[in-house]
Amino acid sequence: MRSSSLRVCASLLFLLLSASVFALSGQLTYTEGDVSIRSSTGAHPAAIGDALGAGDVITTSAQSLAVIDLANGTTLKLREKTTLAIDSIGDQTSVNLTAGGVFTTIVGKLTGRFSVRTQSALAGVRGTEFFIAYGRTIDAQPDVWLCVNSGIVDVSIPDTGQDVQVKAGLGINIVGGTKITTPRRYPWTRHLNWNVNPGGGNVQDSTSLEAAYSDLLDQDYD
Fold it and tell me: Which residue of 116, 160, 172, 208 is 20 to 30 Å from 123, comparing CA positions?
């Protein structure tokens, strides 16, 4: 009788620990095309349902995409040719975008803080929907584009101390990783596909970032 009780306790403890681990992780919920995951154990093709945690790197190839749900209430959609690393999940959830572009949607109430890092900038959110992507390379650093569909995003360049709040309907360009342009409306952002739910229709976004440059005013580079 005692050994039976111990086995039950051990099983409950295992389930609780498993739930605790899952609560601090993420999951790959949808893919199209070729998507891979690199973790501490090596790289492998991604599959829907794969668990993701801090240290994992997700890469999408040409004409591919991935949708990721994080435990803090954040959904990420990676465009084609994107590389995204999960730095941390928990009270401080952070991801690092090193190539391509990602859509971020906060589902319900955000748990803790969430931020996206690029080579030059840091974007922190309070509960919002925004898109961030690399553009052309100016000098040594690539441009970074960011636009907000809802909510507010705080953007900063740690190396220069520049910072700005970007509100819904507005966008910015971080020129060469060194200068943040004044937030304003960009026509090209109207073509972005914000949908992250495959059950609600097409989730592929094929917006050309080159169109963003045709919207620039000369004063952006003054």
Answer: 208
